[in-house]
Amino acid sequence: MAWQLIEFEVDERLSEAVTLALIDGGAADVLVKKDGLLCVCWHCADEEHAIAATRDALDILLHTRVLDELPEFSIVSKRINTLRLRRVLDRVLLYGLGIIGTFFVLLFLLTVQFNHDDHRGMRKAFESTLKGNLYEIRNAITVFYDDTGVYPSKLTDLVEESDDPARRMPATYRGPYLATQGGVGNSGIPCNPFVDDNDKKIDDHWHYDSKTGKVWSAAEGVTLDGIKYSEL
User: Domain containing 195: what range?
Assistant: First the structure.
């Protein structure tokens, strides 16, 4: 086995793609010179094997139409001396470190993108929960009004038990209209997902107007679509 050097010219814009294809194809090193001139080092029996290996490595670029045709190859020398071999191996090491550095940069970028997508997914889930909980409360208010002809004076009126003798509800009240447990401070009123679970006050989660029966989010912010939470 000997070291073979092959030179050929490619468009400078394609030198990176050609270099990667050659390295993937088993080349020991690829030196990019001026004006798109590439020098490829192979460890093989003779120059014919080196040219064949170069052609095989570039075939994939032909199939993917990166290259329109194979370039003309020329043999630099059949063998290289120890000093040149050392320089080539130094280049291999440097190129390898470059690949490793590129890999970690790509890994970092992918991690950032994954975290961004993951955060966006969580936002979507929270927004869906906010809309669902608002619908649940508003529906309960509507049913309360249909039964009694008035709006609840406060949101906790929606979870009063019908058979509670201490309740001060109209005679036509048929609640509770929401679950009597869980939610904000275990009151039965659904939580606002954009408010800290430790906030036990309903007013920290929802704003409510007893005159109009309207309820909206107490949390500030906007959805991914640019709509304020308070306007949902």
Answer: 107-231
Residue 85 exposure: Cα atoms within 13 Å on the Cβ side: 10
Could you read off the pLDDT of 84-107 as tens digits, one per residue? 555 555 555 555 555 665 666 667
- Each residue of 166-205: pLDDT tens digit? 567 778 888 888 887 888 888 889 888 888 877 678 999 9
- Cα–Cα dist 42/28, whole Å: 6
Are 138 and 41 members of one domain?
A: no
Residue that is last in its domain, among 80, 96, 124: 80
d(CA 19, CA 58): 9
User: Quick one: which of 8, 3, 12, 1 has its CA closest to 55?
Assistant: 8
154 token code pair: 């406060």
Asked whether the beta carbons of 177 and 158 are under 8 A apart, the reply is: yes
Looking at residue 44, its pLDDT comes to 73
Question: DSSP characters for 142-192?
Answer: HHHHHHHSS--SSGGGGG--TT-TT----TT-----S-SSSSGGGSSSPPP
